[in-house]
Amino acid sequence: MNILILGSGGRESAFAWKIAQSAKCQKLFIAPGNAGTGQYGTNVNLKVTDFAGIKTFVLNNDINLVLVGPEEPLVKGVHDFFLNDEQLKSIPVVGPQQEAAQLEGSKDFSKQFMERHNIPTAAYKTFTKDTLQNGLAYLATAGLPIVLKADGLAAGKGVLICTTLEEARQELTEMLAEAKFGDASSSVVIEQFLQGIELSVFVMTDGKNYKILPEAKDYKRIGEGDTGLNTGGMGSVSPVPFADAAYMKKVEERVIIPTIEGLKKDNIPYKGFIFIGLMNSDGEPWVIEYNCRMGDPETESVMPRIQSDFVDLLLGVAEGNLDQKELIISDKTAATVVMVAGGYPGEYLKNKVITGTENIHESIVFHAGTSIDGENIISTGGRILAITTLQDTMFAALQQATADASRIYYDGMYFRRDIGFDLL
Ligand code: AMP
Ligand code: GLY
Question: β-strand 197-205 against 210-212: which pairing, if any?
Answer without folding.
Answer: antiparallel
